[in-house]
Amino acid sequence: MTIRTCIDDNSDLIFNDRPVGVGRNSARTRGSWNSSANFGYSFTLGKKQVTSGGGVQIMGSPAGLTVNPMASQTMPRYRLNIAVNIQNLLNQPAYSGFSGVMTSPFFLQPTSASGVRRVTFNANVSF
Fold first, then answer.
1. pTM of this prediction?
2. Which of 7, 21, 28, 34 sits at a 20 to 30 Å CA gap from 118?
3. Are the CB atoms for 88 and 118 separated by under 8 Å?
4. How far is Cα 105 from Cα 102, in angstroms, rounded to an integer?
5. What is the mean pLDDT of the chain?
6. Which pLDDT value is given to residue 84?
7. CB of 89 within 8 A of CB of 119?
8. Dihedral sign, CA of 97, 34, 84, 47?
9. Structural domain boundaries in the chain
């Protein structure tokens, strides 16, 4: 942010003069932070036997090849996934648009705020 006097101090008909000793974009505003949380859980419903006869897993490494036999597994037939996503968990606003005009009543004050709390619920079924 740049602090400006909004007075034509040097008579060049441009009203964006800065006070003496203040550089362009030299003012800093307060920092901001945010918090969020994600929660999820999966439910399995019904059972289905996998009909494959298993298989073999072959892995290579600098030490040589490793062969692992794989047995058939019982897999769930359906899966219900439920998730909750909360953005801005602690409802902390993010201020912006600070005014750098020294003659303004809003000098060094934010002119906008964003980041309201948002809660999203998700559910899906896979089979």
1. 0.51
2. 28
3. yes
4. 8
5. 79
6. 95
7. no
8. positive
9. 36-126
Report pLDDT for 19.
Answer: 78
Look up residue 32 and give its two tokens: 């901001």
3-state secondary structure 55-122: EEEEEEECCEEEEEEECCCEEEEEEEEEEEEEECCCCCCEEECCECECCCCCECCCCEEECCCEEEEE
Q: What is the average per-residue pLDDT within 102-114? A: 82
Contact by Cβ (8 Å): 115, 92: yes
Look-up of token digits 């060094």: 108
> Could you identify the residue written with the tokens 């419903």?
45
Burial letters for 61-85: b for 16+ Cβ neighbours within 10 Å, e otherwise?
A: eeeeeeeeeeeeeeeeeeeeeeeee
Whether 43 contacts 78, CB under 8 Å: no
Instruction: Identify the band that residue 83 occupies on the pLDDT scale cut at 50, 70 and 90.
Output: very high
